[in-house]
Amino acid sequence: WPDPNEGARVISLDSSKGVGGKMGDYSSFCMIHWHNGTFYIQFDMANDRNVVDIVKRSVELQRQFRPKIFGIEAEFGGASLGQNILELATREGLFCNLVTVNTHRLNEAGQKVATPKEQRINGLGQFLGAKRFRFKLGCSSTRLAVQQMQEHPNGLHDDGPDSCEQGIQIYLETRLGIAA
Fold first, then answer.
1. Mean pLDDT of 150-155
2. Which of 20, 72, 123, 170 is the most exposed place for a label (fewest CB within 10 A)?
3. What whole-number distance in Å separates Cα of residue 48 and Cα of residue 46?
């Protein structure tokens, strides 16, 4: 695993607390460390967290992982949840560079269009095929997220792949001062 002082780090959260969420969905934090052309990835997933637990875990993971950016899905209450995360981080004296990630992507004409989740997750295939991902498989949440990727699009859950796609999207949109 790369030295924490090298490369750049992002955490992306798929809270799965939005409208129409499936029963048993996971809140999925994807921690991504970009270093020397590779995305090192670890997950923290649970399907029994309430909103208070998600906010607390968000701040704990930021303290431990020290990301440059913490991303959360903009739709389905992400802005409200993000505000709660920022408030707790501030109370605890922790700087939080929170961004909201939307499910819209630019088309060939440069216009923002809604992109179905399945299509966004399928975009991870280019990185998997190029062997640009390294997963911390000693972690049960990471093994679960990799299983969800393997079962996509026919699996019961896709929260791990969704949070991973959001984290990668943050890199692609911000570059964090690096080239992908």
1. 92
2. 20
3. 6
What pLDDT does residue 66 have? 94
pLDDT range class, residue 70, cuts 50, 70, 90: very high
How many Cβ atoms from other residues are within 10 Å of residue 61's Cβ? Answer: 17
Q: Which residue has the tokens 């739709």?
A: 75
Higher-confidence residue of 79 and 104: namely: 79
Q: Are 163 and 30 in contact (CB under 8 A)?
A: yes
Neighbours of 161 (CB within 10 A): 28
Angle of helix 159-174 relative to helix 140-151, nearest 10 degrees, comes to 90
155 membership: H or E segment, kind and range: none
Q: Are 127 and 133 in contact (CB under 8 A)?
A: yes
Q: Which residue has better confidence, 15 or 91? A: 91
Q: In this predicted model, which residue has the larger pLDDT, 100 or 29?
A: 29
> Can you tell me the distance from the alpha carbon of 39 to that of 20, in angstroms, rounded to the nearest whole number?
31
- Sign, CA dihedral 54-55-57-58, equals positive
CA angle at residue 169 from 51 to 23, to 5 degrees?
Answer: 35
Give start and end residues of each alpha helix (H) in the chain.
Answer: 51-65, 78-91, 117-122, 125-129, 140-151, 159-174
- State how far the Cα of 178 lies from the Cα of 124, in Å rounded to an integer: 19
